[in-house]
Design goal:
- The chain is α+β, with helices and mostly antiparallel strands.
- It contains four helices and six strands.
- The chain has a six-stranded mixed β-sheet.
- A hairpin with a 3-residue loop joins strand 5 and strand 6.
- The radius of gyration is 16 Å and the shape is globular.
- The two termini are 30 Å apart.
- The mean pLDDT is 93.
Length: 175
């Protein structure tokens, strides 16, 4: 498996779309160049969450994205972990399934919003997904960091996972 799969972009339909694709390429270059975050082999929890999505929808036949929020609470020497998993049946699930209101409730109860995990499974040409936040992912994560205390962002393709502190997203372009 390739740790840094090439980003496959369609030909732009107009100048506005060309600018979006330039921003996506810029972000990929930052990550692949080691300037933002790191890409490492997938962790056990992330693999479990990816496998859950694959069990729902076979990712090679019907790629779909999910977002899992991982929250932690430490008390008396123990650490509790809660995962809020959101996904739909379409490639890009609606924000209504992300569980933002549930995350907000946990944060209000003193839980830390440790990270959110998002997936990029395969690209339109069938090649392995890019484990780099898209410009939309960057915008969303910045909002979560500001409004809910998100600490880290993770993006996986099922084999490798990008991980970075939310503060490093300031170097990336969002839309």
């Amino acid at each position: 498996m390739e740790k840094h799969p090439a980003l496959q972009l369609p030909p732009p339909q107009d100048e506005a779309e060309a600018e979006i694709w330039r921003d996506e390429e810029f972000n990929n270059a930052l990550v692949y160049g080691g300037e933002v975050g790191a890409i490492e082999p997938i962790t056990c929890l992330d693999a479990l969450l990816f496998a859950e999505q694959n069990a729902r929808m076979a990712q090679l036949e019907h790629p779909t994205e999910f977002l899992a929020s991982v929250l932690v609470r430490e008390s008396g020497g123990t650490t509790e972990v809660t995962v809020i998993f959101g996904a739909g049946m379409e490639l890009f699930p609606p924000m209504s399934v992300y569980g933002a209101e549930i995350v907000e409730r946990y944060v209000a109860e003193g839980w830390r919003y440790r990270y959110f995990l998002h997936n990029h499974t395969i690209q339109a040409d069938g090649s392995l997904g890019v484990p780099v936040p898209s410009t939309s992912d960057v915008r969303f994560a910045r909002s979560l960091a500001t409004n809910r205390g998100l600490e880290r962002i993770r993006v996986t393709n099922g084999f490798f996972t990008f991980d970075a502190p939310a503060r490093e997203l300031e170097m990336m372009r969002g839309r």
